[in-house]
Structures are given as structure tokens and as C-alpha cells.
Design a protein that fits this description.
- This protein is an alpha+beta fold.
- The protein has a domain of 231 residues: Aspartate Aminotransferase, domain 2, CATH 3.40.640.
- Helices cover 34% and strands 13% of the residues.
- It contains eleven helices and 15 strands.
- The strands form five sheets. A four-stranded mixed beta sheet has the order 1-11-10-7.
- Helix 7 runs parallel beside helix 11.
- The chain is globular, with a radius of gyration of 22 Å.
- The two termini are 32 Å apart.
């Protein structure tokens, strides 16, 4: 174990780079070249996207899956299929990536934020009912980091008020709640296949559901408003072109074949990290509900308690980890703290019903609840023991506390 932190001139515990992501090989090359050489590069002329939709639906234990170009557009089409539009309200959490809310704005609706449970970083179902108004049209729980929300609690409130539930499962491919994979537990669910995701197509998204009516409507909306038997210029409604390319579908087909093996590695690595971090006072992994039967481990989230580390800031802790060769980040900024969200709301005031109200000011509550701040640790294929070493050794021994505080 090094005597000094790397940030103070010591030797880093890891000197080689973590393996890159995504992982690919001959199978990806084979299927992409098949699509390329076929000359059928669009969803309507080829077979790769449809094959991916069928296999992804089966993987998520859903009746239907619809592929789209990205996760943001999956949300937009999902909201449109639910009939959400100008003046409507959609309940969600501010602790998520901005796409959750930008898609709500894109259909003209208003996001209403409900706070998270600080132990899980997930929406707190006990707070949803107080946010419901006559304008509420849907509830959007976000499975942040790949950890399923308390769907029993969310669905119970939604059921009593006759509200649909759209699961934002962008980071949760393969995650399970009580033995059922997320996405189609609610009315519908959306996924992202952006480059960093556990199932990567560079970009891409999908909508899953068990409801024939929602699938048929989403299919029409994603195909310019055509019906299942429509000709090229026959349109049943206004829609958009949200079709996935055959090249992306081919890549995702190959990546899907790798997914279960990769998830097993993530499960193993997460167990190693959880075991090692349990010995370190001041680092607390997020609580996993016992009804979560599989975590997707897109992110490994912990909370950092500064007093346990001599009062050093979260930023100091992250900088020291990075210096040891262990990538880490500070987590998401609550959307209520992002100026673009407030500007978007302000621009809509007076133009659409319901947009003359200020955004709920949840940011102070979120920050108080995040007094022990969340951090994300990598799920590298190998080198997990070195993550433990960097944390257990350098920090548990208190070396960081000998560094003088940064000047303000």
C-alpha cells in the first residue's frame, strides 16, 4: 500500500487504463456488413431492425418493442402515444439526465418534480400524490443508474388516480423488479442505446409495452403517421420519422448477444465493490430495495460523508481517486438547478395553459438530502480490486485528511 496519495506525489494504485467501452468484434462486423451489402439500409426495407425489436422485446419480457433513433425520441413518442400535449403535467424526478424533461417540454407539457428517496436516488412514491393536479396526465419514474424504482408504490398511486406510468429505463436494460424486467411493468417504458449504455448501438432507443393499442399508436407516430396497411402517402395522423436504420439494428443485434455475459461481470464487480466499501466509514452505497431482483449496474453510486474524511470536500475526494487512476464523477445535477430548464419554462408562460406557474423549487431540498453527496465509480472489466485498494488503503488510513483544505 502506498505511503502517500498519488495526488500528493505518491504512486497511483492503477497505472494502466481501464478497458474501453463499448466492446465489439467479428459478430458486430459480420451483421453490420450484412446490412450494408444488402443495400436495404432503412427499417422499412430491411429485416435487422425488426429482428432486433423481436429479440429485445423477448429479452425484456414484453409483448412489443419499437426501435427508434435514440432514447430521447423514445420518450417523445411515448408521451405522444399517451396523448400528452400542451398544458398537461407530467410527474417525474429532478435527479435524472436532462432528456427526461426535454422530452416533456418537446410535447408541450410541464414537468412537475417529486423529490427522491435519499437512500436510493430514486423517486419517492410517498410524495407523488401531493403533486397530482387536475392537469396531471402521467407519472415517469426513472430507474437511475440501472436500479429499479419502487414500482409497487408508483403503480399503486397511479392506479388510484387513473394515470399511466411511463418507465424511463434508459440506464436499466435487463434490470428486474420482483422477477419481471423493467419497461413493460408500467404502461410502457423507454430505453437508450447511446454509446455509454450497457447495450450500445452508438445511438438508439426503444419503447416496450404489453399494450397492443399503445404499440400500434407508437408505431404509427414513429412512421410519419402511417397505419399498418397504409400506402406511402396514406396518413392516419400527424407523426414523425423516428425510424432506426438497419445498420444500427444490426449492431444492436450483435451487442444483445453479449449482454447477459456482460451483466454477469457487472454483477460480480458490484459485489466485490460493495464488500470492500463496507469496511470504509463515510462511504455508503445506495440502498437496494429487496424487491429488486436484478440491478443493471450502469452506475455504481455511493454517498460520500465529508466529516468521515476530515471535512474534505467531495471534489477533493474525486480528484484524489482520479489521481490514483480510478475514474469517478460527481453524479447528476438536479434539473431544478439548470438554467436551461428555467428558461424553457419561462418561454412557455402565457402561451400554453399551465405554463404560467413557476417551477417547483426542489433544488434546496435535494441538496439538503444530498449532504452526503453521490459519486459514481466505474464498473471496469477487471481492476475492481484496485478500485477497492485506492479507496480502502489511501482514504481509510486517513491520508487525505492531512492535506490542507482548499482556499475558497
Amino acid at each position: 500500500m502506498p505511503k502517500h496519495l498519488a495526488i500528493d506525489g505518491g504512486t497511483p494504485v492503477r497505472t494502466s487504463a481501464f478497458p474501453s467501452w463499448p466492446v465489439w468484434g467479428e459478430r458486430e462486423r459480420e451483421l453490420v456488413l450484412e446490412a450494408l451489402d444488402s443495400g436495404n439500409w432503412g427499417e422499412l426495407s430491411g429485416d435487422k431492425v425488426q429482428a432486433f425489436e423481436n429479440r429485445f422485446a423477448a429479452h425484456q419480457l414484453a409483448r412489443f418493442a419499437l426501435a427508434v433513433p435514440n432514447g430521447t425520441q423514445a420518450l417523445e413518442v411515448g408521451f405522444q402515444a399517451l396523448g400528452i400535449g400542451p398544458g398537461d403535467e407530467v410527474i417525474t424526478t429532478a435527479y435524472t439526465f436532462i432528456a427526461t424533461v426535454s422530452a416533456i417540454f418537446a410535447v408541450g407539457a410541464k414537468p412537475v418534480f417529486v423529490d427522491i428517496d435519499p437512500r436510493t436516488n430514486l423517486i419517492d412514491p410517498s410524495l407523488i400524490e401531493a403533486a397530482i393536479t387536475a392537469r396531471t396526465r402521467a407519472i415517469v419514474p426513472v430507474h437511475i443508474g440501472g436500479q429499479p424504482c419502487d414500482l409497487d408504490g408508483v403503480l399503486e398511486v397511479a392506479g388510484r388516480h387513473g394515470l399511466p406510468v411511463l418507465e424511463d429505463a434508459a440506464q436499466a436494460v435487463g434490470a428486474e423488479w420482483k422477477g419481471t424486467r423493467v419497461g413493460a411493468i408500467g404502461d410502457l417504458g423507454t430505453f437508450s442505446f447511446q454509446e455509454s449504455k450497457n447495450l450500445s448501438g452508438g445511438e438508439g432507443g426503444a419503447i416496450v409495452t404489453n399494450r397492443q393499442d399503445l404499440h400500434d399508436l407508437a408505431w404509427s407516430l414513429h412512421n410519419c403517421g402511417r397505419g399498418p396497411a397504409s400506402g406511402t402517402f396514406d396518413f392516419e395522423r400527424l407523426g414523425g420519422n423516428y425510424r432506426m436504420t438497419e445498420l444500427t439494428g444490426a449492431l444492436l443485434l450483435a451487442q444483445l448477444e453479449r449482454l447477459e455475459g456482460q451483466m454477469a461481470v457487472r454483477d460480480r464487480n458490484a459485489a466485490i465493490l460493495t464488500d470492500g466499501l463496507a469496511d470504509i466509514s463515510g462511504l455508503e452505497p445506495t440502498l437496494i430495495d429487496e424487491r429488486v431482483t436484478r440491478h443493471a449496474w450502469h452506475l455504481y453510486q455511493i454517498r460520500y460523508d465529508a466529516p468521515a474524511f476530515g471535512g474534505r470536500s467531495r471534489e477533493d475526494f474525486i480528484a484524489a481517486l482520479i489521481a490514483e487512476g480510478i475514474p469517478a464523477s460527481a453524479g447528476y445535477v438536479p434539473l431544478t438547478s439548470i438554467d436551461a430548464i428555467h428558461r424553457s419554462r419561462a418561454a412557455r408562460r402565457g402561451r400554453w395553459p399551465g405554463h404560467d406557474l413557476a417551477l417547483p423549487d426542489d433544488a434546496p431540498r435535494l441538496r439538503r438530502r444530498h449532504r452526503r453527496y453521490p459519486c459514481h465509480l466505474p464498473q471496469g472489466r477487471g481492476g475492481v480490486a484496485l478500485v477497492k485498494a485506492a479507496t480502502q488503503g489511501a482514504y481509510h488510513r486517513g491520508e487525505i485528511s492531512r492535506r490542507p483544505p482548499r482556499s475558497k
